[in-house]
Amino acid sequence: MARVDNYADNYYSTLEVSKDADIKKIKTAFRRLARQYHPDLNPDDPISAEKFKQISQAYDVLSDPTKRRRYDLSFSFNQRQTSTSYTNRQTNHNNPKPKTAQDFYLRGTLRTQKKEYFQAIEDYTEAIKLNPKFVDAYLKRCEMRYKMGDNQGVLDDCYQIFKIDPNIAKAHYYQGRARYSLGYTQPAIESYDIAIANDVNYPQAYYYRGIAYKEMLATSSAINDLNKAAELFRSQKNFDAYRRSQEIVNELTKGKHVSGWLDNLIHNSLMTLSLSLFNPGGGLLPAFSRLNNQQSKQVGTTYGLFSSLCFFCTYFMTGLPLMVGVWQLFLIATIPFVSFLATGNIMRLVLHNRGRFSTDVFIAGVAVVPIGLVSLLIGFIPISAFSFTIPLFFLGFSYSALSLHAGYTQLLNIRESKAALTVALMLVLNSYICLSLMSSLII
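and the corresponding structure tokens:
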């Protein structure tokens, strides 16, 4: 049986769109809110992290036609229930308290959203008294009890749910969480096994089973589960959980599988290139969001070295005489990337003073790649057709400008006007630095 999703939240309000919004408006709203609340742009801010999770969950449902249709039906039903309950309370002023199991459940849901867990448990308990087979109320009370550390209460609720329906994946998942918290690792794994058997696309069950396997030193099983969890988290646009899963996998495989690390680097670099190069305005944030800090630095550095290699090869392809040693020439070819990185870091600290060095490396690498690729194309053009290099040069420069602008507005959340001025200054400053240094070192 599939997990019981909570449709009490209004996903349209979460994304700040109307109920009839098309997929384009939904994507635009998600990108705008993701820039505002992304955890990397708001470090140590739990409110922004929670908001980012909410908008990611809303986007996951509303961007999928099947999930959206199912959500609309469920949400309309809840609205009717809420409207009926509200009308009953308004018409009976002497008794404004909830009357039905659904009334108590809805009030418990509202209290859950306000993090009033104890009061929410009381409401779910009243709902269960009125309807002893109210599985959703059991599940929500189970969730609240787990958050409050009442593991025995969680196990009791799971037992009651199994008497109603033994195939509810979420109940087995919480049973596993409670067992693990009590120190029963192997029984916890058995609970996760049943949860996954009933819902093969349950990322949290894979994740915590992987954690349990890790504790039991079953490294191979832990890696398999965590990789599966990361894959599912990424498909659900839950990039924060995806990064956590990947970080644990990297920890488990560190120093053991160099080829696996290299495969991940190549995959991340090509995926980022496909997302950002062909859509620098809209693809940069999704490309960056799927990487952790270490991966961002690795991808940015890879792009920087690749661009340097392009500049290096272009010099030989043009037939210019070699004025310095080969290694000196390659170091000179790294000047554009180093210049973008240094000036970008300074600009961020002066104008924004937020974000991380890994973001600077990523933006510098993405910005210099178009210029490197264009320089490589120019190397194939004969001297007689040199006039064709001018539009190519402006093409690479324009792509770099778009990448820098997207980096500052989407990844660092700098205002559009300030970002435009910053990009212009960056390009002028880097052009002067690169030309000056290259001329002085080569001549």
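(Above: one complete record from the training split.) Confidence is low (pLDDT under 50) at residues 1-8, 83-95.
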